[in-house]
Design brief:
Helix content is 50%, strand content 2%. By secondary structure, the protein is mainly alpha-helical. The longest helix has 18 residues, at 95-112.
């Protein structure tokens, strides 16, 4: 266990550096100072974070430009209503999907002032799985704000199965407070209750390292993997997202147990 922890700590430290920011979607919320802008852009940038990182960053940059680089006010002023719903935002995510999402988020912000306050109000931190609790509560308001219509390209609905990778990544940015890459601007959820943002690469790396047995990249796999990593850092298991992401990407060889 000590050898594995030392290995993961070392690999994470190679990625969790300021230089990492420039090529990662985390750069976009870091451009802002106001909480509402930071958390809104975190959610939006993470929401389109699938595919090549260069394409993700290009499209996130274009999305901010579309919002006049003033995302919170753009949303509250309903600037999205001027969009052509057929306009492509990123891959299979279109302006119509963005309109649906922002319509619901605007309602949340109108009632609670910030997503952090909303998270606190629904008791996300007291739930064993804060990210899933938070999304479930958000979906209720987003759906109601859109007349009962559920978007297939909005926040995930299959909460019993989904790994919730993109939301868990946004929460890592918002909650972790080591002051290096992640911003740590939220107070409603402690970093000890974060879960690993699980995608195919992270899942395969974890299996190769013997950290994950489950073959599907689903919620149960996230819970299994994060549970193992909590054994190494009970107060900050999501720190190891950097290690699992970086292994392979940096060309490092996997640990030979």
């Amino acid at each position: 266990m000590n050898e594995m922890k030392e290995f993961l700590d070392e690999q994470a430290s190679l990625i969790n550096r300021p230089e990492f920011i420039a090529d990662d979607p985390v750069q976009f919320p870091r451009r802002f100072e106001k909480l509402q802008d930071i958390e809104l852009v975190s959610l939006l940038a993470a929401h389109i974070a699938w595919g090549k990182r260069t394409m993700i960053c290009r499209d996130a940059d274009r999305l901010l430009a579309l919002m006049g680089h003033d995302p919170y006010n753009y949303m509250m002023d309903k600037g999205y209503l001027d969009l052509d719903p057929s306009k492509n935002i990123h891959r299979t995510f279109f302006a119509g999907d963005l309109i649906h999402l922002l319509t619901g988020l605007r309602e949340i912000y109108s009632r609670y002032g910030s997503l952090d306050a909303f998270s606190a109000s629904v008791g996300a931190s007291s739930d064993p799985a804060p990210a899933w609790k938070l999304v479930g509560e958000m979906q209720k308001i987003i759906t109601d704000a859109n007349g009962g219509v559920v978007s297939k390209r909005g926040l995930p609905n299959n909460l019993k199965q989904t790994a919730l990778k993109r939301v868990n990544m946004a929460l890592r940015w918002l909650v972790r407070d080591d002051g290096i890459v992640d911003m740590g601007v939220w107070k409603s959820i402690p970093k000890s209750k974060l879960y690993i943002p699980l995608d195919v690469h992270v899942g395969n790396t974890a299996r190769d390292l013997g950290l994950l047995v489950r073959k599907q990249d689903d919620r149960k796999a996230v819970e299994e993997l994060t549970g193992v990593l909590r054994g190494y850092r009970p107060d900050d298991p999501a720190f190891y997202d950097y290690a699992l992401f970086g292994i392979g990407v940096t060309g490092k060889k996997l640990y030979d147990i």
